Automatic annotation (TrEMBL):
Entry protein name: Putative ABC transporter ATP-binding protein YbhF
Domain of life: Bacteria
UniProt entry keywords in alphabetical sequence: ATP-binding, Nucleotide-binding, Transport
Signal peptide: none
Tagged with keyword ATP-binding: yes
SMART domains noted in UniProt: AAA
One function term, GO molecular function aspect: ATP binding
Domain ABC transporter: residue ranges: 3-211
Length: 211
């Protein structure tokens, strides 16, 4: 998989939220985006998914222009802020319902991912009774459970305890080694430094490479 961002600029109400972004992202890598509150990290992730379209410039996914040739990248797993699930279903029921749409994920895979993240798939606890960290884990599972080739994660470590952070790190490394393209943001530079192959900083909508 390859995502090419060519001279992408997004202006909202006269403000340049993202400015002349050029970057090429390839499978088999984890890309980390850091930046202060309001710097444009979430906007950047939204643009990679086709959720926002540029004022000028373009995003190409495997050569296809977002918003023109395709609306969204195929085979995309995404965790944006506050994962939304149905409040009165259990975590397992929520994941099963989502997986029914494409019907490519066996229940056993959902169960083993939930086990891996220490979520009890047999539990009757409904999503609205989940803790913040449990919600976050469910959001991460839906972003990876269908063997998605592009995985976009906004602040995936948010609300996770130390053990869960370590587990997620290992999972993301093994997905990277399978050739997947992973892009994530964090406020915490240490999380990014430990895991990412390439790091970028967004400062006031402009992107700078760190390595
Ligand atoms: N719908 C919107 N309309 C206008 N401006 C917006 C909109 N959404 C975001 N912005 C602005 O775009 C800029 C970038 O926001 P963004 O959410 O990408 O920041 P961020 O780096 O993800 O911040 P945080 O770390 O706080 O999550 C901010 O100045 C924000 O106010």
């Amino acid at each position: 998989m390859k995502i090419e961002v060519n001279d992408f600029t997004k202006i909202i109400s006269k403000a340049k939220v993202l400015e002349n972004i050029n970057i090429c992202l390839e499978g088999g890598n984890i890309y980390g985006i850091i930046g202060r509150n309001g710097s444009g990290k979430t906007m950047f992730l939204r643009m990679l998914c086709g959720l926002i379209l540029p004022t000028s410039g373009m995003v190409k996914v495997d050569g296809k222009v977002l918003g023109k040739d395709i609306s969204f990248p195929e085979n995309l797993g995404i965790l944006l802020e506050k994962p939304s699930f149905l409040p009165n279903l259990t975590g397992y029921e929520n994941l099963q319902m989502l997986s029914d749409i494409r019907n490519i994920t066996p229940n056993e895979k959902i169960q083993s991912l939930m086990n891996l993240f220490e979520l009890d798939w047999k539990s009757k606890k409904t999503f609205n009774k989940y803790s913040l960290g449990m919600k976050q884990k469910l959001g991460i599972i839906q972003a990876i459970m269908e063997n998605q080739q592009i995985i976009i994660l906004d602040e995936p470590f948010n609300a996770l305890d130390e053990v869960s952070v370590e587990k997620l790190r290992k999972i993301l490394e093994s997905l990277r080694d399978e050739g997947k393209l992973i892009v994530m943001t964090s406020h915490n530079k240490e999380d990014i430094d430990l895991l990412c192959d390439h790091t970028y900083t967004i400062v006031n909508g402009k992107m700078e490479a760190e390595n």
